[in-house]
Write a structure and sequence with these properties.
With 335 residues, the chain is α/β, with parallel strands linked by helices. Helix content is 42%, strand content 18%. Strands 2-1-3-12-11-4-5-10-8-9 form a 10-stranded mixed β-sheet, with helices on both faces. It has a two-stranded antiparallel ribbon with strand order 6-7. Helix 1 crosses helix 9, helix 5 crosses helix 6 and helix 9 runs antiparallel to helix 10. The longest helix has 20 residues. Bound molecules: 3-isopropylmalic acid and manganese (II) ion. 3-isopropylmalic acid (IPM) binds next to helix 4.
Length: 335
């Protein structure tokens, strides 16, 4: 597997993830890659074609976090996002971004267990659009949302297959009352896929209403399926209501397995706490467990996930101070 520590707290949280994987008895063959803001500033390169090709040859990619310090003028917005993260998602066809949430004691979503299946290759992220007459009073900017039947269907199909293995409920989140073209495609694909899963309960919410229900009734969800941008926003909210973004794990999956999948915590590089030992590695550790599950190492994946859930519960109940390495040790100890 390829390890991309990245910037800020990225390498610190990944070190704990790898520590835990080793403690679970899984022997990984790792190769380290320097990518991210630091690498870009040193080399002028975001992601070269040859490095991308090399990465495509691995079984899995584990990424910490990439990004410059907030407000940095050296790396303009979009350079790393589009050039590295989105490029990996698009070129490796990582069409599902799976983000599980388990609310810790004291959180709004205490005791809840739900997952968001975010479409990961289309929507407003696709890059459709452009700008005309830039810098003039007549400037025009458009940014379209790309939704293909192929892309929408395969994402929704994944959500139903996941729900069939869980509590058998899928909620579609969109904005069909305003986004009448894309929303209509999503709704029809959803109904068609649902018809082949009669044992799975279905629901629909507009995204604005879903923001209320994520806070007021998070226990109603099992699997949520939604488009790329709604999924981006809702999963930060999912993190916030279930105990903090430091717990939010993600798997960027290529379920067709035409190449490697990529696993990363939802949080960013958090330069403000880099090197202080304050970063919570649980999201990275859980992401590594999702990687093991995808690679067929079901038993260690299950054990690590259980250990992470126990540890996050214990941490939520305690007022003790902890450090990044101590949390990694504690999870490893639970194995
Ligand atoms: C995420 C991040 C990314 C996204 C950014 C960094 C491109 O916010 O993984 O949620 O918007 O998808
Ligand atoms: Mn995000």
């Amino acid at each position: 597997m390829a390890v991309i520590g990245g910037d800020g707290i990225g390498p610190e949280v990944l070190a704990e993830a790898l520590k835990v994987v080793a403690a679970a008895g899984v022997d990984l063959d790792t190769a380290y890659f320097e990518l991210g803001a630091g690498h870009y500033l040193r080399s002028g390169e975001v992601l070269s074609d040859s490095v991308l090709e090399e990465l495509a040859g691995f079984d899995a990619l584990l990424l910490g976090a990439v990004g410059p310090p907030i407000g940095s003028k050296e790396v303009p917005p979009g350079v790393l996002e589009r050039g590295l993260l989105l490029r990996l998602r698009f070129e490796l066809d990582l069409y599902v971004n799976l983000r599980p949430f388990n609310g810790v004691p004291g959180s709004i979503a205490e005791g809840c267990d739900f997952a968001v299946v975010r479409e990961n290759t289309e929507g407003p992220y696709a890059g459709e659009g452009g700008v005309l007459r830039r810098g003039t009073p007549h400037e025009v900017a458009t940014q379209g949302s790309v939704n293909t039947r192929y892309g929408v269907e395969r994402c929704i199909a994944f959500a139903f297959e996941l729900a069939a293995k869980r509590r058998r409920k899928v909620t579609l989140v969109h904005k069909t009352n305003v986004l009448t073209y894309s929303g209509d495609l999503w709704r029809r694909c959803f109904e068609e896929v649902a018809a082949s899963h009669p044992d799975v309960e279905t629901g629909y919410q507009h995204v604005d209403a879903a923001c209320i229900y994520f806070v007021e009734q998070p226990g109603d969800y099992d699997v949520v399926v939604t488009d790329n941008l709604f999924g981006d926003i809702l999963t930060d909210l999912g993190g916030a209501v279930s105990g903090g973004i430091g717990l939010a794990a993600s798997a960027n999956l290529n379920p067709a397995r035409t190449g490697p999948s990529l696993f990363e915590p939802v949080h960013g590089a958090a330069h403000d706490i880099a090197g202080t030992g304050k970063a919570n590695p649980l999201a990275a550790i859980r992401s590594a467990a999702m990687m093991l599950a995808h690679l067929g190492e079901q038993e260690p994946a299950r054990r690590i996930t259980e250990a992470v859930l126990s540890e996050q519960t214990a941490m939520a109940r305690s007022t003790d101070k902890w450090s990044t390495a101590a949390v990694g040790d504690a999870v490893a100890g639970r194995l």
